[in-house]
Amino acid sequence: MNIGSVFATTQPVSVGPYHYVPTEWICILFVVLYSISTVLHMGQALKYRLWWMIPTAFLAGVLEVLGWSARLWSSRSPKLLTPYEMQIVGTIVAPTPLVAANFIILGKIITQLGPQFGRLTPKMYTTLFCSFDIICLIVQAVGGASAAHAAGQKTSATMGANIMLGGIVAQLFAIVVYVTLAAEFLLRLKYNAPFRYVDKSHILEKGQSTESKNSQLMLFGVGFCTLCIFIRSVYRTVELANGWAGPVISTERYFDWLDGALVTLAIYTLNFMHPGIWLKKDDPTVSQQTADEEASAT
Questions:
Q1: Which DSSP symbol is given to 115?
Q2: With contact defined as beta carbons under 8 Å apart, do 133 and 96 qualify?
Q3: Per-residue model confidence (pLDDT) at position 154
Q4: How far apart are CA 94 and CA 13, in angstroms?
Q5: What CA–CA distance (Å, rounded) separates 43 from 53?
Q6: DSSP state, 229?
């Protein structure tokens, strides 16, 4: 057995809507991995009382479990349309709540390291990006449902694919803007260049660093998670733009590595680099300072 055969998956064949038969053991592996992460996220959300992690990271895990369970079903009944329709919606939509978790975490990091260095206030980061993320989620869900319905009716799913494509491209745009603003914040923090006026007692002395080791780890975690989702979104964009019968969507190993594996890395990153562990609890002083920053910004 050569190395290539170990990593290769079922070769594309003209059977069912996938144009291949999903590999059973790979589907089982991802169902198990996502299930473990999802249970951990619920436990961590309850332990650290971070309720917003439930409709974000936990929900993403639930959707991935459903999507990969449907693919497991397809591995045994590759010609059935119902599991194919389920996995379309599940795997397309699932990473979107995970992106929202990253948006919220960035706002909390900015709150702790210095709101005056951000172009937006922490509350604006969360409100603006999460609102846009919800819109992307709805668009992708509508597109996925439309494509699934078309597949069930054996009609063209092009419109549904285009809607999903629009939602993913919009999400890519949001991630790029998010990363740009985060990079600007870090540069302003490093060079002590506040974006807005604050009381002098809140401005750091030159050369003083506010990045604790925990904050640095959390920033690394959010950055890596975002990178994984970004690469996955680029892949799904190319996949959908290539068409339902194109070589990209018809090759199983692309999906396994560039969607399944990358989203697995992303969701586990937030298990290990969990904000409940690496970010300190909000305190009245920080909350009051943040409120003052937002008032001065308006």
A1: G
A2: yes
A3: 73
A4: 27
A5: 10
A6: H
Minimum mean pLDDT range among 120-129, 259-268, 287-296: 287-296
Residue 207: both structure tokens together = 């050369």
pTM of the full structure: 0.86
Q: How far apart are CA 276 and CA 247, in angstroms?
A: 42
- Give the relative orientation of helices 95-113 and 262-272 as an angle to the nearest 10 degrees: 40
Average pLDDT, the chain: 85
Residue 16, Ramachandran bin (φ over 0: left; ψ between -120 and 50: alpha; else beta): left
Distance CA 101, CA 52 (A): 8
Question: Backbone phi, then psi, for 60, in 5-degree steps?
Answer: -60, -40
**Which pLDDT belongs to residue 297?**
47
The first and second tokens of residue 71, run together, are 């693919």
d(CA 252, CA 230) in angstroms, rounded, equals 20
Cβ neighbours of residue 244 under 8 Å, at least 6 residues apart? 157, 158, 161
Residue 160 one-letter amino acid: G
Most confident of 156-160, 163-167, 193-197, 265-269: 265-269
Instruction: Return the pLDDT at 67.
Output: 97
Place of tokens 């604050």: 198
Task: Determine how many CB atoms are found less than 10 A away from the CB of residue 125.
Answer: 26
Residue (of 76, 44, 77) closest to 61 by Cα position: 44
Phi, psi (degrees; rounded to nearest 5) at 248: -75, -55
Task: Give dist(CA 103, CA 177) in Å, integer.
Answer: 11
The pLDDT tens digits of the residues spanning 111-123 come to: 888 888 989 888 8
**Which residue, among 179, 268, 175, has the nearest Cα to 230 in the 3D structure?**
175
Q: Is residue 84 a contact partner of residue 74, using CB atoms and an 8 Å limit?
A: yes
